[in-house]
From TrEMBL:
Keyword NADP annotated: yes
Pfam families in the cross-refs: AMP-binding, AMP-binding_C_3, NAD_binding_4
Protein name stated in the entry: NRPS-like protein biosynthetic cluster
TM region positions: none
Gene3D superfamilies hit by this protein: ACP-like, N-terminal domain of ligase-like, NAD(P)-binding Rossmann-like Domain
GO molecular function terms attached to this record: phosphopantetheine binding
Record organism: Purpureocillium takamizusanense
Keyword NADP in record: yes
């Protein structure tokens, strides 16, 4: 059978090195910047990249300079030049040489791409930092590369703030000009040099062996090794769920080198669930000018989609579905192939790029998990290992890209082990790593040895500890007792505190929860042994085979000690506290039961561990013992999760069936409860009279929220034109007053309005801006999560004296979020209502017809609804209904107070 012809999605660097892969594609790219610039010349109006965003109920593409569609290659060129110019101003003289490394802490977004390209245009190698890194790991990486500047986006401000005074200056991503620059005119010489400094940027290892990550350099020369395939068939767009700071960037470069387009999931903006992925792809397909037929992911994503009917249909609709980063389980892969999915395994590394794939004739060849070698031994070879019959992949000196070598002949031993196909000498199935690292199903890696040593040393009752988890959603540990006479309960109690202490010092994905501790029983009266090499290290392949039943049992059901125990009946009234305890044990902190769990930092690994803890407690009947993989994200809050568990408990009891009606009743009660919870406190009303005496009677000031949004920007522009408005206070989500003003000014320019003039007498002090309150527009940073919105006392006092009108237009327009995700917005509204009452200012809340769109009337009166059923069945609409009720109750309370004062 002839091998399948490669396309840009399947072509390895070895295949790309073959002359026939390039055809008449032109000379190789000289740098990553050259990829962007050449494609901007050849195809300026063709789409390059789009970022699905949850907005207005569906995902939207990241806007280019003039449209709401994907960013073209011409846009990418202009915008990256503009980003370089903005970064020059932002960084200024903080860096001394062009070759200084700059850290980047940013989610997958257009901001990431432009900052990355802009810094490289300036000659700065970019250290790409995963947001999941602990602050000490970020500091370690920056210090290793002498990176004294760290640029972060708004989503990761809190993480960057934890770095502290460590010689690293943290800067926000500057506002970028919406049209970029059409040429290099006015651009510094460094920007014109195409950023040929090496390395171009750095990935980093997971760093769990020592607790600290290590940088992996990526050179501009890698661009010359990329495949340049420009056939029409290659213009299909890719959708990648992998973040840019990991494999998503490789997906980008692979697409761009062939002039293709890529869509990316909005990492950090919403949880990675089957529903969200499906909606994101559907939206990308509607907006894309080229068909989205290629899907790139990690095993964890495919496992989620395989469990979801819509997700499975989505995968089957793709021409190719690529998986990499970790080994996909054979069961899941086979299921996908049986369901008509053209599944493609892709194998590579940060050190050597794209090495192998299982690209083939998909209709006849179903062996998706066997990687095919299309190059000779001068490029790649497999070295046999006598100990276990596996083969290690060796990347030879002729391979077109190697960021590092570890052998004297210039080759690179990958430590990746493979099984040979029984009949095809050029087909290999990935098995495991030769080193100690364990790779979970989501691609995250960790070294188990610190946990093994720490747990073993915690008690003399333990002889050995073996950590497992390769290819699984989370890690577990086999506990080998010194004596078979030690009971399981005693042994588990002995290691419990040590395990919790160890968990606190490792990344979240490397933690081991109590439900995954398995005591290994003796066999025929003899203690069982973990297979070891002559050096005393664990032979993990043999150990996984030997203890397969115990390991599979830990994931399929419960540890033996728990499975043997009688179910502990938990009353419905105690269910909330039991579920909350599961969250506390995994997160090592309490979570708010009524706040959105994703916004509280409950990540996918934590969800897996919490779900297993709940299953171990047998909180639901046996037919529901295996809870859905996404049950925690789907329910949104602890309260919603408890309600779901209660429904599962009672759904089979006649006359006591908890279904959709119960869910609706609970939501209606929650809406009323939220409106009541955020009502004004009596002391706010009492203090309102005191502020009246200190008001500036000549002042006519407006407080505006949402000035960086579409409506808010237009409101601000109108207010700026009014002669009777002395001052406009804009509350902006930013870290400093300077950043707040820059954001508002950039937004005004983007909407076609004049820029904000600089504050008279201001010298850019983050805490105080002399003369700032003499300006027409005063921009103040605020924080929804902080008391009094995090506003400085002096700013609050000034607004209490001056503000006569509050326009509240800031609200996240996201139809995918549940009602509980709007808790911070409701708290903000409560604070603004209090400010309005105390200052006796008029209050205008920008609501939505969605708050009453479910009414039966053909004409909807302009009145505030008292019935929560009138709101559309969306979290956004329900939050607007709650907000309207809060405004109505505040108005009623104030009227009652005024009436009482008149009667006195």
């Amino acid at each position: 059978m002839e091998p399948a012809k490669p396309n840009y999605f399947t072509c390895t660097l070895g295949e790309a090195a073959l002359a026939e892969c390039h055809g008449d594609a032109g000379p190789p790219f000289s740098s990553i910047i050259d990829v962007v610039d050449q494609q901007a010349q050849r195809r300026p109006d063709e789409p390059a990249v789009g970022f699905a965003r949850f907005h207005n109920g569906v995902q939207q593409a990241s806007p280019s300079s003039s449209t709401d569609g994907p960013v073209t290659y011409g846009d990418l060129h202009r915008l990256s030049l503009g980003a370089a110019r903005a970064l020059t101003t932002s960084i200024g003289e903080r860096v001394k040489t062009a070759g200084e490394v700059v850290g980047l802490l940013c989610g997958s977004s257009l901001e990431f791409v432009l900052t990355w390209l802009g810094l490289m245009r300036l000659g700065h190698p970019v250290l790409l930092l995963a947001p999941q890194l602990e602050p000490r790991a970020i500091k370690h990486l920056c210090h290793q590369l002498d990176a004294r500047i760290l640029v972060r986006d708004d989503l990761h401000e809190a993480t960057a703030a934890k770095i502290g005074s460590s010689g690293i200056e943290v800067l926000g991503v500057p506002p970028y000009h919406p049209n970029g620059y059409s040429s290099s005119s006015g651009v510094s010489p460094m920007m014109q040099s195409a950023a040929l400094a090496e390395p171009a940027f750095y990935f980093h290892t997971s760093g769990t062996s020592s607790g600290l990550a290590s940088p992996v350099p990526q050179r501009h020369s890698m661009a010359g090794a990329l495949p340049r395939l420009h056939e029409p068939a290659c213009q299909s767009a890719t959708f990648s769920t992998t973040p840019l700071y990991h494999g998503g960037l490789a997906d980008c470069l692979r697409a761009w080198a062939s002039g293709a387009m890529i869509w990316l999931f909005p990492d950090g903006e919403c949880p990675l669930t089957a529903r969200n992925i499906t909606q994101a792809v559907d939206s990308a397909r509607r907006k894309s000018v080229v068909p989205v037929t290629l899907f790139s992911s990690v095993p964890y994503v495919l496992e989620m989609l395989a469990e979801d009917a819509d997700g499975l249909r989505l995968l089957a609709s793709m021409d190719l579905v690529g998986v990499g980063g970790a080994a996909l389980s054979v069961a899941i892969g086979d299921k996908l192939v049986r369901s008509g999915v053209n599944l493609l395994s892709r194998f590579g590394s940060a050190e050597c790029g794209f090495l192998l794939s299982s690209h083939r004739e998909y209709t006849a060849d179903k062996e998706w998990d066997y990687l095919r070698v299309r190059v000779d031994a001068d490029y790649l070879r497999f070295e046999p290992r006598e100990s276990d019959g596996l083969w290690e992949l060796i990347v030879q000196p002729r391979w077109p890209f190697r960021s590092k070598t570890n052998r004297e002949d210039g080759s690179y031993a990958t430590s990746d082990l493979f099984e040979r196909h029984p009949h095809n000498a050029n087909a290999w199935r990935y098995h495991s790593r030769a080193d100690a690292q364990i790779t979970l199903a989501n691609g995250k890696k960790f070294d188990p040895s610190p946990m093994e040593a720490g747990m073993q040393s915690a008690t003399p009752l333990l002889r050995e500890v073996y950590v497992f988890g390769s290819g699984e959603p989370c890690a577990g540990a086999l506990l080998f007792p010194q004596s078979g006479a030690t009971s399981q309960s005693v042994l588990l109690a002995a290691v419990r505190d040590a395990t919790r202490c160890l968990n606190a010092g490792v990344p979240g994905h490397a933690r081991i929860e109590e439900s995954m501790l398995v005591v290994v029983p003796s066999a025929d009266g003899e203690n069982q042994q973990v297979p070891k090499s002559s050096k005393g290290s664990f032979l993990r392949h043999q150990a996984n085979v030997k203890f397969a039943a115990l390991i599979e049992g830990a994931y399929a059901a419960l540890p033996a000690e728990q499975a043997a125990a009688s179910p502990v009946h938990v009353q419905d009234g105690d269910l909330l506290s039991v579920v909350a305890d599961c969250f506390h044990r995994v997160m090592h902190r309490s979570v708010d039961p009524d706040r959105d769990l994703y916004q509280q930092g409950v990540d996918s690994i934590a969800c897996i561990q919490i779900r297993k803890l709940m299953e171990a407690k047998k909180l639901v009947p046996s037919q529901h013992a295996a809870l859905p993989l996404n049950v925690i994200y789907d329910q949104g809050t602890v309260t919603g999760l408890v309600a779901h568990l209660q429904r599962l408990r009672h759904e089979d009891q006649p006359g006591d069936r908890a279904g959709d009606d119960d869910d609706g009743d609970q939501l209606l009660c929650m809406m009323k409860s939220l409106a009541s919870r955020h009502r004004l406190a009596p002391n706010v009303l009492r203090s309102s009279a005191a502020y009246m005496s200190s008001r500036d009677s000549s002042a006519n000031a407006v407080l505006l929220t949402g000035a960086t949004g579409f409506l808010g920007a237009h409101l601000l522009a109108l207010l700026r034109q009014r002669q009777d408005v002395a001052r406009i206070y804009c509350l902006v989500r930013a870290s400093t007053k300077h950043e707040a003003r820059d954001r508002v000014s950039a937004c005004q320019v983007h909407r076609g309005f004049p820029t904000l003039p600089p504050p008279r007498g201001a010298d850019d002090d983050d805490d105080e801006q002399p003369g700032a309150h003499c300006q027409q527009v005063v921009c103040l940073p605020f924080d929804l999560a902080k008391p009094h919105l995090g506003l400085a006392a002096g700013d609050t006092q000034m607004m209490l004296k001056e503000v006569t009108l509050i326009l509240h237009s800031a609200w996240p327009v996201n139809f995918n979020l549940p009602l509980t995700s709007f808790g911070d917005q409701l708290s903000c509204l409560s604070e603004l209502l209090a400010l309005a009452v105390q200052s006796h200012a008029r209050f205008c809340f920008v609501s939505s017809v969605a708050a009453v769109s479910s009414t039966d009337a053909s004409h909807i009166a302009e009145t505030i609804s008292n019935d929560p059923l009138h709101a559309a069945p969306l979290g956004y609409a329900r939050s607007k209904w709650v907000a309207e009720r809060m405004c109505a109750e505040a108005n009623c309370m104030l009227a009652q107070q005024q009436q009482q004062q008149q009667q006195q």
